[in-house]
Amino acid sequence: xxxxxxxxxxxxxxxxxxxxxxxxxxxxxxxxxxxxxxxxxxxxxxxxxxxxxxxxxxxxxx
Length: 62
Known about the structure:
Layout: H1 6-61
Family: Belongs to the TatA/E family.
Keywords: Cell membrane, Membrane, Protein transport, Translocation, Transmembrane, Transmembrane helix, Transport
Main location: membrane
């Protein structure tokens, strides 16, 4: 979906974000998005590790 935007579309989105949120709020917004992505990756990795452990336990039982 995002691959269809292209450079001009990305520039338009960034300019609109700058206009809507202003130069003072934009770094805070970016930081919040970054922290959210970091937490999402951490949670996803935790789920994948649990799934892997469960599969290894099933193999040991067999």
